[in-house]
Amino acid sequence: TPADAWWRSAVFYQVYPRSFQDSDGDGVGDIPGILSRLDHLQELGVDAVWLSPVYDSPQDDNGYDIRDYRAIATEYGTLDDLDQLIAELHRRGMRLIMDLVVNHTSDEHAWFRAALADPDSPYRDYYLLREGTPDAPPNNWTSFFSGPAWRWFPQEQLWAMHLFSSRQLDLNWEHAPLRAEIVDMVRWWLERGVDGFRLDVINYISKPPALPDGDATIGALMEFTGVEHYFAGPRLHEHLRQLRAEAFDPYGAVSIGETPGVGMQLGRLLTGASRGELDLVFTFDHLDMPGRVRFDDYRYDLAYLRDHVERYERGYGSTCWPAVFFENHDNPRMISKIDPRPEHRIALGRLLAVLTLTLRGTPFLYQGQELGLVNHAFASIDQLRDVESLNRYALLREAGQSDAAALANVLAGSRDHARVPIPWDAGGGFTTAQPWLEGDAQQEVWHAAAQAADPASVLSAYRALIALRRAHPEWVTAPIEFGPRRRGVWTYRRAAADVTVEVSINLTDRTQRLAGEDAGWQTVLSSPEHRWGRLTPYEAVVRIRRAQPANASAI
Ligand code: ISL
Fold first, then answer.
1. Active-site residue identified among 61, 200, 327, 416
2. Catalytic one among 75, 258, 388, 416?
3. What's the domain count of the chain?
4. What would the pLDDT profile of 102-118 be if each residue is shown by its tens digit?
5. Atom of ligand 1 nearest to the CA of 101
6. Distance between CA atoms of residues 64 and 200, nearest Å
7. Are 58 and 67 in contact (CB under 8 A)?
8. How high is the ipTM of this complex?
9. How many angstroms is it from 66 CA to the middle of ligand 1?
10. Cβ of residue 101 lying under 6 Å from some atom of ligand 1
11. Are 338 and 347 in contact (CB under 8 A)?
12. d(CA 325, CA 418)
């Protein structure tokens, strides 16, 4: 992993295709729609797009259930459309990474159908299938989408493992021919010109062959039973090295692991330059406060984020390079977690822009984050579409909770908040039909067209910060130095030979005093009512100083 690899200083932008832009009036986003919005990405200044799955799929989990790895879902377009997307992004100087979902396939994948159809099929070994009786699943593992991690197939008298929905069956990575198929498939996409992959729940692929029961105490702590056996399974590192050596490295492809439950130490093993495994990992510890889970209704304290980041920076070490992100298609909007009061929305949107684009690491923006989108006030369960939300609601109702209580719980963490289509202009602009998922209209006043014309908007803040990275690329890979600790205020600097970037953030909803010299600094970003010496609620100020040696003086 060279220190000057392109992906270290690149800004990535995640497109969730279902919700980005519809081009043919069916209420569902598609690839031609993405092609029609590339100006937005180029004006924003992003270097690479991560495209969530567009493969052929029955869409039980919005494409994370793949039926055919080498075909495009008809509602999203054709292989030609995808080739055109690759070509058009490359023409504009941007790269494309795709989503690689290889922990599981759809129950409609040809491999799974063949495995069920014939006891002697070689595909039986592709999945985690066990003979048995309907009353006794092979172990006590639970699914992330509610209930046991096993589905019973009565005709075949077989259990099949599914860590996610019952229509997403786990693949058997112990089986060498399965691994060879995955390598072939990855190379097929790289041959088409894709620049790399985000690897879905990649740390879950290796399971101990005996599939032992999970520990009940750990299960209760982690909310899910069995996780300790597969979140870093016995052959994980070996499988990753094979993928890298046989598929990614020959093409110079970037590999970004989605690795839930992976902390700092394991993250170092997965991304250490000499280990030959992954380039970057997404870890999730910073998205919820300790002792909290996504479905808890609470206010996220930015002081926790500061402590977490400073601890990570001390421990992760300068040889590992973090992925910096606050949102994706699996989490509620971050602004809403911190402070849902509308009067703080723009300040928090800008604050998250500053953190995402100035902390040390590779930034990943999720669509709509650049508009400061917030959670939706869904009025009833009928408005939700996500399999996780719907299963959770059903389970809570079965357990005796009222409709209101179950809905409130689901809405605190629902993935649908981040999946509502993008408001492009005053008329919506996403589709001419009924969108596949509808949020509340309140968000539409924040549409992209209005923000593009407003220098004080969240969108303008993202554009200015990305421009600052492009204008002075040296600081982007420079170390980070934290200022002295002060309650409610976070300061840090990124010092390169020719330029120093200084960030001051108000972590609270109260005005804070701010000390430090003014001379020699140029303010790149602040709130419109900014005055040096104080920070307004949630204000984030970015200043630069040019052509001065990076000295050790405290902030
Ligand atoms: O592991 C978890 C326990 O909380 C989940 O949050 C998990 O991290 C997440 O659901 C994994 O996400 C990825 O794989 C899923 C898919 O539904 C998500 O959209 C995807 O990002 C299964 O493919």
1. 200
2. 258
3. 2
4. 999 999 999 999 999 99
5. 23
6. 8
7. yes
8. 0.95
9. 14
10. yes
11. no
12. 14
